[in-house]
Amino acid sequence: MLLCPVRDCHLPLEREARHLFCPRGHSFDVARSGYINLLQPQDRRSKQPGDTAAAIAGRRRLHDCGVTGPLLHAVAELTAASPDDVVLDAGCGEGFYLGTLARETGCDAHGVDISIPAVDAAARRYPACEWIVANADRFLPYADRSFSLVLSITARMNADEFRRVLREDGRLVVALPAPEDLVELRGAGRDRAARTVETFAGRFTLTDRRSVTTAADLDAAAVQDVLHSIYRPMRSQPAEPMRVTFSLDLLLFRKLAGANDRRLRGNASDPERPNPVASEGRCRWTMPVHSYPLRHRSVNLDEHQRRGH
Ligand SMILES: C[S@@+](CC[C@H](N)C(=O)[O-])C[C@H]1O[C@@H](n2cnc3c(N)ncnc32)[C@H](O)[C@@H]1O
Ligand SMILES: [Zn+2]
Question: Which of 106, 118, 255, 305 is most buried by a 10 A CB count?
Answer without folding.
Answer: 118
